[in-house]
Amino acid sequence: MSEEVTVEENEAAGLAGLSALQDGAAQAETQISVAEPKIDELGRAYATGRRKNASARVWVKRGSGNIVINGKILPEYFARPVLQMLLVQPFQASSREGEFDVFATVKGGGLSGQAGAVRHGISRALVNFEPGLRPPLKAGGFLTRDPRVVERKKYGRAKARRSFQFSKR
To answer: pTM score, two decimals?
Structure first.
């Protein structure tokens, strides 16, 4: 008889422990899935983007899809269509085209690096504005900082790796 009581007590204790574990898991799940948007008092989200030697400060807010870079509109600053397409990719991946205004200041590097830096900044700012957009942007590779930079020139070499021309005589 005493064995039956202990078995019942163990089952009750096990069920109580299981429900406590489930409650803890549910709380952890809500903490993980609910990320807070980081929006300032003007309704903007901020992020920094980098690519090669360029770094961009990017602000994103709800709007009509205007993109201003260093005080110029997108087609004025990035004249090449490929660079313009690069900046619109995060909005296309998250299906938010024409919903956000972008204001960015970028310096350093060349045009291609600057476009990549602004794209990286837009992606990070969108995640700060709307954390639910992280999975599609992450899958598109927009949140990863591209680590490739120009290799430095070494002494005794014509460029980073190229040797001087060999002369037999």
So the answer is: 0.76
**CA torsion 105→108→110→116, rounded to 10°?**
-60
75-104 per-position pLDDT tens digit: 999 999 999 999 999 999 999 999 999 999
The residue behind tokens 């903490």 is 31
How far is the C-alpha of 140 from the C-alpha of 115, rounded, in Å?
A: 16
- Residues with Cβ within 8 Å of 120's Cβ and at least 6 positions away in sequence, in order, are 49, 50, 51, 56, 142, 143, 145, 146
Planar angle of CA 132, 64, 115, nearest 5 degrees? 75
Q: Which residue has the tokens 């969108």?
A: 126
Report which residue type is found at 44.
R
Strand order in the sheet with 100-107: 44-51, 54-62, 100-107, 67-69, 72-73
